[in-house]
Design a protein that fits this description.
- By secondary structure, the protein is mostly helical.
- The protein has a domain at 4-66.
- It has 6 helices and no strands.
- The protein has helices at 4-14, 20-33, 38-46, 50-61, 63-66, 83-87.
- It starts with a helix and ends with a helix.
């Protein structure tokens, strides 16, 4: 049986220091340290979805793709408002 309390405690200590990428990598490493059912156990303990944990494992197995210097892919994140729209907000 997996020690979910240990996983939960380790993750809660680290969670405020992690960005999106490092959160994936920590969850992936934690699930690789466990034997069968590691992804599901880490998902239950941390609340991170299983596809995100699988992505972290893939990044750990292929480090060239994991360290591109960006947290998100180019074009990711919130889009900028057009200049016309900004006039309505008093700028």
């Amino acid at each position: 049986m997996t020690n979910l309390a240990g996983i939960k405690k380790r993750f809660s200590v680290l969670s405020r220091l992690l960005d999106e990428r490092s959160r994936r990598l920590v969850a992936g490493a934690e699930s690789l340290a466990l034997e069968r059912g590691g992804i599901s156990a880490v998902s239950r303990a941390t609340g991170i979805s299983r596809p995100v944990i699988r992505q972290g494992i893939a990044e750990l197995k292929n480090p060239k793709t994991a360290w591109t210097g960006r947290v998100r892919r180019p074009g990711g994140g919130r889009k900028q408002l057009p200049k016309k729209t900004l006039r309505w907000f008093g700028t």
